[in-house]
Amino acid sequence: MNAKTSRQPLLDEPDLCMGLGSLAYAVAKSDGHLQPSEVKTIQRIFEESADPLALRSFLIQDYYGATVEESYSFAMRRFASSRDALSDATKKRMVSMIERLARVYDDVSRKERDLIKRFRRDLNKL
Is the pLDDT of residue 67 over 60? Predict the structure, then answer.
């Protein structure tokens, strides 16, 4: 549990948290550049969900200016390395969180929808 909150983290496995943060970055950036307000909102969502490792992964991707594909590939490698921890319930929580992050600002763009669809398909293969 996070020292600042009594809530249970969304994901217990560190690789899954790192992957989720990287995936969130890929989805957020898929429709163009990240806006500072978008980063702050995503930061708040990860803080509320008690996932500091996911937040750090997101911020590292942003700091280094990773491409959408680099971030997505990193995320999928993290998920593959922890496939034993990927229960159906965990997969649903991950998809739900990514969809929530994509809805941060108005409508979900076509590029965001396409990346989320790709993620669902790739996640089901693990």
Answer: yes
5-19 burial: b if 16+ Cβ within 10 Å, else e: eeeebbbebebbbbb
Q: How far is CA 22 from CA 4, 7, 52, 74, in A?
A: 23, 22, 13, 7
- Locus of tokens 């989720």: 20
Q: What is the dihedral of CA 117, 34, 74, 52, to 10 degrees?
A: -100
Q: Residue 25 CB: number of other CB atoms within 10 A?
A: 28
- Using CA atoms, how far residue 24 sits from 33, 67, 97, 110, 119, in Å, is 13, 12, 9, 16, 11
H-only helix segments in the chain? 14-29, 36-48, 52-63, 68-81, 88-102, 110-125
CA 53 distance to own-chain centroid? 11
Write down how long the chain is: 126
pLDDT over threshold 90, residue 22: yes
Domain boundaries along the sequence of the chain: 14-125
Residue 121 pLDDT exceeds 50: yes
